[in-house]
Amino acid sequence: MNMYDWRRDEAIRAAKRREWERLRDERRRRHVDLAIACASVAGLVLALGIGIVDANAGEMSVNPGAEISQCEAPYGWPVETVVIEQEFERPLNAWSPGHRGVDLAAETGTAILAPKAGTVSFAGKVAGKDVVSVRHSNGVISTFEPAGTHFAVGSKVARGQVIGTVEGESDHCGDRCLHWGLKRGAADYMDPEHVTGNKRIALKPVG
Q1: Whole-prediction pTM value?
Q2: Per residue in 119-155, pLDDT tens?
Q3: Could you give the count of Cα atoms lying within 13 Å of 24 in the half-sphere of its Cβ?
Q4: What does R_g of the chain's alpha carbons equal in angstroms?
Q5: DSSP readout, 127-195?
Q6: Alpha carbon of residue 32 to chain centroid
Q7: d(C-alpha 16, C-alpha 65), whole Å
Q8: 160 Cβ partners below 8 Å, 6+ apart?
Q9: Of 137, 153, 158, 200, which sits most exposed with the smallest number of CB within 10 A?
């Protein structure tokens, strides 16, 4: 190889090295630009999620009410302190055995809260049991026993309103619990635990 060939090969290698360095720097710039863009989008999403900027005060204001309304569970619990004596057990069909609701620990006189707005549809005796039922706007019926109420059938009640007290007779757990059943249609029983909020609950140990 003569001097000319050596210098030519060296020039080619140098040109290739410069091109490789140019491409490397370009890739690095693209990565930095992408990281900045992602950080900007994340910051915008966070700002929109937390609140809105007050242009006058230069501070961020939070609207907690909007967040609560979006995250509110379809139903609330009908008692303040939630201790489940017996869980829901779906029957195989309308006449099969099962547990068509939940039994909540409650002494006689415990206030019963409307789990959802609705209309008192029944208050009285059913097969010797004291029952109060509320029909909600979506057609689902809440049934409580043993229960008594001073509301007349047809009365409107609001979510969380005291609609009665634990009292009377029941074949679930006597005078130490409130049975709450949810029924949609003729025989479509729902599990109350699946439609209530994340309020702390406790399962009472068996035995």
Answers
A1: 0.61
A2: 999 999 998 899 999 999 888 999 999 999 999 999 9
A3: 6
A4: 33
A5: TTEEEEEEEETTSEEEEEESEE-SPPTT-EE-TT-EEEEE-S--SSSTTSEEEEEEEETTTEEE-GGGT
A6: 39
A7: 63
A8: 76, 113, 114
A9: 200
